[in-house]
Amino acid sequence: MIGELKREQPIFTTRAHVFQIDPNTKKNWVPASKQAVTVSYFYDVTRNSYRIISVDGAKVIINSTITPNMTFTKTSQKFGQWADSRANTVFGLGFSSEQQLTKFAEKFLEVKEAARLARDKSQEKIETSSNHSQASSINGTDDEKASHAGPADTHLKSENDKLKIALTQSAANVKKWEVELQTLRESNARLTAALQESAASAEQWKRQFSVCRDENDRLRHKIDELEEQCSEINREKEKNTQLKRRIEELESELREKETELKDLRKQSEIIPQLMSECEYVSEKLEAAERDNQNLEDKVRSLKTDIEESKYRQRHLKVELKNFLEVLDGKIDDLHDFRRGLSKLGTDN
User: Fold this and answer.
1) C-alpha distances out from residue 163 to 128, 150, 170, 195, Å
2) Is the dihedral of CA 86, 92, 98, 99 positive or negative?
3) 67-81, 200-214, 233-247, 262-276: range with lowest mean pLDDT
4) What pTM, to 2 d.p., does this model score?
5) A single Pfam family, by name (predicted)?
6) Ramachandran sector of residue 8 (left: φ over 0; alpha: ψ -120 to 50; beta: rest)
């Protein structure tokens, strides 16, 4: 197998999960690989043939020669299959994406067409070679008949014996081919039945896929509900965080109020002393008010005396003014008298 791969060239490679149809039930798929493995198209330059080969470790799980009669069928978005009459089985490939499945199917059609062209060219070569050998044999016999009419009978007999042997071998080959054709027909019938069963299995897979999809939708809906519940829980956590901060603020305010209350209690302890002092001050205030009243009475009396004194002063001023006026008149008279005396003294 390794030597064959050395003379073959990989023309396309991908990765997929490999399955084979159950040979007993012809319905269920049996995994040929535990995980995705490499699946490659190989071209054999010597034989001018194409094969699909996949190896899992040291085990060959796919060795399928592609013929023009093969068909690759997509049974789902990520699964495809084909029947191999020579291996008497049906291979299935599960891909991770629809794009990989599409590329593999397109390559299968391309390789299938290349295999058909190679077969047609091979048949044309065989037919051309057979016709050429028959024409050469007939021409050679005619020439021998023309040149050796009598002595050539022995040669003709030998040639006829050779032709008889060739016809016998050809008949045997025809029987052999008929047997192989019958075997291929039976194998094709088995593969057709297996393909039909595979199609039924594909329908079962589709139903299971639909159930899984519904379950997936239900789980997604459940996940959405859980996410919504998580969102509500997060909102509640935020509210709890805000409430904790508010409680801490209220506790801080409460501590401040307690401190103020302690201060007030300390102040309340000196209230009796303050009240006694207040009573003492009140008594002093009342005494001061009484003294103030007495002083006001004295002020009013003094104001009365002052008014009377001012009145007497004004009266005295008037009398003094009158006296001064009289005095001025007397002084003027005295001056006049003195001038008269002076004048009398001068005259004497």
Assistant:
1) 19, 21, 10, 45
2) negative
3) 200-214
4) 0.40
5) WH1
6) beta
